[in-house]
Amino acid sequence: MVLFAIACWLSLVINCGAIRQQTAQLFSPFQISTPVFSEFLLPSMIKCIVLCTQTDNCAAVDVIQESSSVLCKLRDKIQASTPVLLVTDPPSQQFIIGTWEFIKHINTCIIGFNDIILYGISVDECKATCVSERAFFCRTAEWLPANPTRSSRCSLSKDWKDSVSDGAWENPCSVAQEHIVYQRMPVK
């Protein structure tokens, strides 16, 4: 509850005081793996996050508490091909600047990259399950609606268009024309 309150407060501070109208999201236990392009020793976590929002090429910030100050590491913009990694016991808190949204790809499927398959749920439940998944950072929710001979199918994957081999991302989908892939992408 305290972490949620801090995140909400940070979101308000970032939206009100920053040049870029962005939010800062804590995706623990996930962290992005883009390069650190600058480091600063600052008096507070808030100053670190605001610095990132005021820097055009900053996508995320790592905050490491060091006695009375924080080590602030600014990370380069997230590229579509840069994965978000599961980090066990991360050494720092990382706030990703911006939000994530689903991009819809009709008549598309990913062949052979299903991490979790669920049956009998709605498309909204499929996307919500992708967002709330904690075993891996879900990047795609592949949806196949129900028909008279089968129930609906939801395939969740840590992979996306730019992370799979050329033949794995199919458009049009050879398995079933009704497939829709919802690819989770960072909004800059």
Automatic annotation (TrEMBL):
**Which Pfam family, any one of them, does this sequence belong to?**
PAN_1
Indicate yes or no for the key word Hydrolase.
no
**Region forming the signal peptide:** 1-18
Superkingdom of origin: Eukaryota
InterPro entries, alphabetized: Pan_app
Q: Which UniProt keywords apply?
A: Signal
Question: Which segments constitute the Apple domain?
Answer: 101-163
Q: Could you tell me what this protein is called?
A: Apple domain-containing protein
